[in-house]
Amino acid sequence: MYCTECGHGIDGTLKFCPECGTKIGDKTFKVAPVELIQSLITKHFSVIAGYGSAPDDRVIVHSAIVNLFNDFSRQMFGSDCFENFDKSTGDADCDFPIEFTDEHIELVVEALIQSDELNDLIKPIVAGFLFWFVYFTFSDLRINPTIAHKIKLLTLDDKLSDSNLRWFSNTEVFGFIKDFYKNIFPGGKNEFLSAMQSIVSSVKPGPLGTIPGHSGFDNNKDRKTEWENLYTIYNSADISLSIKSVLETQNWLEEYKLYFESNFTTFLDQEFVALIQCQESVIGNKSPISGKDQILFFSTQGICEVYAKKKHRRNSQPLFYTLSEVAEISIGTEEHESFSGFSSSVSTFMVFTIFTTSNKIYTKHIYLGDTESKLNASRPQMMERLQNISKFFTIVEGDVIQSSSGFSISPAIGFWQGID
Q1: 321 with 341, same domain?
Q2: Does 323 share its domain with 405?
Q3: Last residue of some domain: 212, 235, 258?
Q4: Does 273 lie in the same domain as 392?
Q5: How many Cβ atoms sit within 10 Å of the Cβ of residue 45?
Q6: How many angstroms separate the CA atoms of 99 and 278, rounded?
Q7: Domain around 148
Q8: Comparison of pLDDT for 171 and 320, the residue scoring more
Q9: pLDDT computed for residue 111 by the predictor
Q10: Of 288, 295, 298, 299, which Cα lies nearest the Cα of 312?
Q11: Residue 21 placed within a domain
Q12: Last residue of some domain: 235, 252, 267?
């Protein structure tokens, strides 16, 4: 426990702070959890700073983690949280005091993962323990996604007795990781796969090791081969994104999440394919096109159309075209030349037309640019999105039109012939 008057650590059996004399029973005396955790990390890990390179060191590191949690729990709440710790297997019974909340657990986990007092050999062992602790002991615990991602990367680096291979081969762990990078932290997927691929590239062939207290691998299997097989499983996994996860990871899309929650909740759980910003088609000589801004959200189940501006969404519902309802999508190009005095400019648009099975047509215009550099910047991005869309929808080449001051003058060269 800590005194808030002077910050001095205090034994819970004392009645007064030995540093400043504050009475422990007074309301002015409280525990400062963050400072306490930092002091306990120093206390329990400074004595094992040289460990982490031998298989038997794993039990020593696990004991330090258990002792840290118990020490914290005793000083905060008066009792241990881990009981019957088996040093030979690393197993323990968890009996956390009711006052030991998720917030306290998060504080300890984050402090351990971010601590500079843990050497590079010990930290992966700590991460592996916390991975088990968070996902198997407290499956409902939701710690900071950045910290959870770091735990996974560090656990990959735990090479003692092939522990990382054994852990990530577990089907339940695979399920956790797939869900994490699909719905919680999609931005970390590539880094995780790159870290695993790095192990595959560097690992040496040879018989698999064993972990003290646990059954080992089949000794007839080769370490490098097993890693190659494991990477193939993870790399080919359907770690796809939901609409909800995309909206949550992009700040500028947060308002659309709230809109869908009120108007089209089920769409949030659909699998994300692509997103395109566009404008409504406007009838008449508009150069350039000047309809209301819209966003097309593509999922594996259809296309959802919403207005980009809140004032336009206020009295409207999202328009959803189901996958079976969309007959084909036509991709065309329009170039509009406008004059101002003796100068002129040409604006290029992609014309995105949805044809439905009920013979309805919905046309959108997507501004690409008015200079060569802008066109070369926008085209690759649009091509990538169209490639993703083409996996679920039929895309065909549409009309190509040039106009000058609102009057069509000739066809132009097709812009989207590169789509498979």
Answers
A1: yes
A2: yes
A3: 235
A4: yes
A5: 23
A6: 52
A7: 33-235
A8: 320
A9: 92
A10: 295
A11: no
A12: 235
Greater confidence (246 vs 319) lies with 319
Residue 7, in any domain of the structure: no
DSSP string, 83-119: ES--TTT---EE---TT--HHHHHHHHHHHHH-TTS-
In a domain, 16, yes or no: no
181 lies in the same domain as 210? yes
pLDDT in tens, 76-113: 888 888 887 776 666 677 788 888 878 888 889 999 99
Contacts of 213 (CB under 8 A, 6+ apart): 59, 86, 88, 89, 90, 91
Contact assessment for residue 155 and residue 170, using Cβ atoms and an 8 Å cutoff: no
**Average pLDDT of every residue of the chain:** 80
Tell me, what's the pLDDT at 113? 92
Helix (H) / strand (E) containing 419:
none
**CA–CA separation, 378 and 348 (whole Å):** 11
Judge whether 257 and 274 are in contact, CB under 8 Å: no
Which helix H or strand E contains 257, and what residues bound it?
A: helix 254-263
Same domain as 249, residue 204: no
Say if strands 407-410 and 395-404 run parallel, antiparallel, or are unpaired: antiparallel
Which CATH number goes with the domain that contains 251? 2.30.29.30
Are 173 and 132 contacting, i.e. CB atoms less than 8 angstroms apart? no
How many structural domains compose the chain?
Answer: 2
Report, as an integer, the average pLDDT of 10-20: 67
Q: Which positions ≥6 away from 374 have C-beta within 8 Å? A: 368
Tokens of 256: 């659309």
Residues 213 and 161: beta-carbon distance below 8 Å: no
Same domain, yes or no: 115 and 51: yes
Same domain, residue pair 275 and 348: yes
Q: Is the pLDDT of residue 190 over 60?
A: yes
What's the pLDDT at 304? 97
Q: What proportion of the chain, given as a percentage, has pLDDT over 70? A: 78
Q: Is 305 a residue whose pLDDT tops 90?
A: yes
Q: Looking at the structure, do residues 214 and 341 belong to the same domain, yes or no?
A: no
Residue 408: exposure state from Cβ atoms within 10 A (0-12, 13-18, ≥19): exposed
Does the structure show a pLDDT above 50 at 318?
yes
Q: Is 325 exposed, middle or buried (0-12, 13-18, 19+ CB in 10 A)?
A: middle
Name the more confident of 181 and 137: 181
- Whether 179 is covered by a domain: the verdict is yes
